[in-house]
Amino acid sequence: MFAKVITTLAVAAMLAASPAQAQAATGAEEAEKASVLTFELLETRTAQWAQVRLECPSGRGNHPHAEQTCYEIKRVKGDLTKLNHSFEQRCVRDDTSAVIVDVSGNWKSQNLEYHMIFANHCHLKTTGGPIFDVL
């Protein structure tokens, strides 16, 4: 009997919660799902290196295409292996300057690690679009 009274009181309290309290709870859940990623790119021929940080969904950090990158990563649910922008652009085979990409951090409270070597800048851009456009 006592457990039933406690359950009834808990349900009544939840129903009586104000919209602001409900919104605050939702905001707290979203804050837990905030994502912080670090991108490192190395162009092998020139040794040009860049490191940028990105916070989603706020778009904070120093990624030059922050909002669009957050959107694209959300579109593939944090699985960067599913990126495939456009292979309509022809890539020139004599551009042999490979680009190494490392992305690490968390996406929606899940560990995210992505490592890829692209044959050149063209392949990098056709796969990742603005996501990897940081060099």
Automatic annotation (TrEMBL):
<keyword id="KW-1015">Disulfide bond</keyword>
<feature type="signal peptide">
    <location>
        <begin position="1"/>
        <end position="22"/>
    </location>
</feature>
<keyword id="KW-0646">Protease inhibitor</keyword>
<protein>
    <submittedName>
        <fullName>SSI family serine proteinase inhibitor</fullName>
    </submittedName>
</protein>
<dbReference type="InterPro" id="IPR036819">
    <property type="entry name" value="Subtilisin_inhibitor-like_sf"/>
</dbReference>
<comment type="subunit">
    <text>Homodimer.</text>
</comment>
<dbReference type="InterPro" id="IPR000691">
    <property type="entry name" value="Prot_inh_I16_SSI"/>
</dbReference>
<dbReference type="InterPro" id="IPR023549">
    <property type="entry name" value="Subtilisin_inhibitor"/>
</dbReference>
<keyword id="KW-0732">Signal</keyword>
<dbReference type="Pfam" id="PF00720">
    <property type="entry name" value="SSI"/>
</dbReference>
<comment type="similarity">
    <text>Belongs to the protease inhibitor I16 (SSI) family.</text>
</comment>
<keyword id="KW-0964">Secreted</keyword>
<keyword id="KW-0722">Serine protease inhibitor</keyword>
<feature type="domain" description="Subtilisin inhibitor">
    <location>
        <begin position="44"/>
        <end position="120"/>
    </location>
</feature>
